[in-house]
Write a structure and sequence with these properties.
Elements: H1 14-24, H2 30-45, H3 50-63, H4 73-115, H5 120-129, E1 137-144, H6 154-166, E2 173-177, E3 180-186, H7 190-203, E4 208-211, E5 215-216, H8 217-238, E6 244-246, H9 252-257, H10 260-271, H11 282-293, H12 298-305, H13 309-323, H14 330-346
Length: 353
């Protein structure tokens, strides 16, 4: 080891350059600069810190300061500047390459993990590198905005840096996937996913976050991810507002959607008579939706629809007459409310069923 504990091989030929510059006053040529860059790359690849490498060059400069440099100190210092700058450039070039390679490995792992395409044993071994242990259950949160979110952009950097700073001892994976930002965390650590959602909303407007339920194993990560995507798709179809949707709270929707024929029959039977109303079924279905969303409180439903309470009451009576079901009757209300949910899922009456 030599100057600054950096091996001699990374300073190869430097003392000779100093002597030649002191004697001739010349600057380093292109080949000499590229050689310094190559040495900087090798130092980075070998794990030496940039400060240690620069310190080694400055130490060697002090130790080998040419005796004739008293006449040309400016030329020698200019050469030192050139050499150190070239070494640093090569070092940074190696770091950028390492980061790109790491990002590529990470993207490949995330793709394999969320699509379930890899052998589970191999996937589990790779997961350790990214802080995941499939022996425990994991939940997946997915953030989606009007614009695509990519690795390294402002949103992903802000969210990941915040999570890393706050949960330094947690096993968390944050990455972009198909224009969305994904967070994989142990299922019992709900505070991590809550913070992820909070930071995503703070980073950009109109971000919606969906959280899948916790499931065990590598396949459980895929399951939770698909649940989160399903919640986002459902929110788009049904006009749900966030800022956070939990798949566990939306289980009724996939249950209803499993038998489309039965759902269509329910909508036609319970709400079909509303098509006889002046203006069609749309306004009355919207009235029922607002009424149920307001907890069957007429004043609140009227406010949401920009109607008077009297006008709302008239619409509810009209619905009662057409369908034979009273929205205020607890026994009949369940059928109407389920049918309204089905209508939203089927986009009825905008689309025929």
């Amino acid at each position: 080891m030599t100057a600054g504990e950096v091996p001699e091989e990374y300073l190869e030929g430097y003392a000779r350059l100093l002597r030649e510059v002191a004697e001739t006053g010349r600057r380093l040529d292109r080949d000499e600069l590229e050689a310094r860059r190559a040495l900087g790359e090798r130092a980075a690849e070998s794990g030496f810190g940039l400060r240690a490498v620069v310190r080694a060059y400055l130490t060697r400069t002090r130790e080998q300061w040419p005796p004739t440099a008293g006449r040309t100190p400016d030329q020698v210092l200019a050469a030192v500047e050139q050499a150190v700058d070239a070494v640093a450039e090569g070092y940074e070039r190696a770091q950028r390459m390492a980061i790109r390679q790491e990002e590529a490995v990470r993207r490949e792992f995330v793709d394999d993990l969320l699509h379930g395409r890899s052998d589970l044993g191999r996937l589990a071994a790779r997961a350790e590198r990214f802080g995941l242990r499939f022996s425990r259950a994991h939940s997946v949160a997915v953030a989606e905005g009007p614009d695509a979110i990519e690795d390294g952009d402002a949103i992903s950097r802000t969210v990941e840096n915040s999570l890393t700073a706050r949960f330094t001892d947690r096993r968390i994976l944050v990455a972009s996937k198909d224009g969305r930002l994904v967070c994989v965390a142990p299922g019992e650590q709900k505070d991590v996913l809550h913070h992820f959602a909070k930071q995503a909303h703070a980073a950009a407007d109109d971000i919606l976050v969906a959280v899948g339920r916790p499931h065990p194993g590598a396949g459980g990560v895929v399951h939770s991810y698909e649940e989160a995507l399903g919640a986002l798709s459902l929110a788009e179809r049904m006009g749900m507002e966030g800022p956070v949707l939990y798949a566990a709270d939306l289980l009724v929707f996939p249950v209803l959607g499993r038998d489309r024929q039965a759902l269509e029959d329910l909508v036609r039977s319970a709400l079909g008579p509303l098509e006889e109303a002046r203006g069609g079924a749309g306004p009355l279905v919207e009235t029922l939706r607002a009424y149920f969303d307001a907890g069957c409180v007429s004043a609140e439903a009227a406010r949401r629809l920009n109607l008077s309470v009297r006008a709302l009451t008239y619409r509810l009576e009209r619905i009662h007459r057409l369908t034979g079901a009273d929205p205020s009757d607890p026994l009949r209300r369940y059928t109407l409310q389920t049918a309204v949910i089905g209508a939203r899922m089927l986009d009825w009456p905008s689309k025929e069923i």
